[in-house]
Description:
Elements: H1 2-5, H2 8-14, H3 18-24, H4 39-48, H5 59-99, E1 107-110, E2 115-117, E3 125-131, H6 138-154, E4 162-168, H7 176-183, E5 191-194, H8 197-206, E6 211-213, E7 224-226, E8 230-233, E9 239-243, H9 249-262
Parallel strand pairs: 3-4, 4-5
Antiparallel strand pairs: 1-2, 1-5, 3-8, 6-7, 8-9
Helix pairs in contact: 6-9
Amino acid sequence: MAQALLPARxxxxxxxxxxxxxxxxxxxxxxxxxxxxxxxxxSSSSSSSGGGGSAPLxxxxxxxxxxxxGGAAAGGWLHLRAxxxxxRRQRRARELRALALGQGDFELVDHTGRPRRKADFRGQWVLxxxxxxxxxxxxxxxLEKLSRAVExxxxxxxxxxxxxxxxxxxxxxxxxxxxxxxxxxxHPRLLGLTGSPEQVRAAGSAYRVYSSAGPKDEDGxxxxxxxxxxxxxxxxxxxxxxxxRGKSDAKIAESVRRHMETYEPLPA
Length: 268
């Protein structure tokens, strides 16, 4: 009945199959992109609405993290450096002990006539010089330099006192009285030591000091050629360093101070 009411043209259209109608329809237009989901604005909107991302740390927290990491790295490097320096000093001390330089004891007499042994100076820092009282210039210059270095160290109350020592290489002329007169011209703590030729020779040999008396002139005077070195001994009596003529009093004091600050007794 409904078909009879429709025009013929409409009847032909209605006879078209549903499949044909579906194919004839234009495809639906894609939905317009959501403005809140695209671009930086959409991203922040998603984050703020409970998405999976997390907000970045504030600048001050990032700076604190970087500073903490840098401090830890620097601390580790300083610890490693200190350990290597300590190992280097211990290795150096073992090498010096292996050299057996100045490790033997000596038996001499000081300028007051009191017998002295190397063990008497155990526990003290010692600056030691070998020379002779008739030396025209080198020995006085070196003893004055040694005295000034000791004075520079004396100005620092926190540092231990250094004991300056002078051992003659000319025992035939440098008796107790001659040495006593000689050391008065230098540091008040300077202790002069002498002894028999055999005792003096043994003390010099322990530090590998070379000495040789030259020919006598018509007045019977002579010069003694000898090693010109100032030796540094630590509180355990171990030879730690030496200073040649080219080293100034300030450089000697600086070196002694550094040895004092880093000193560690070597295990027996």
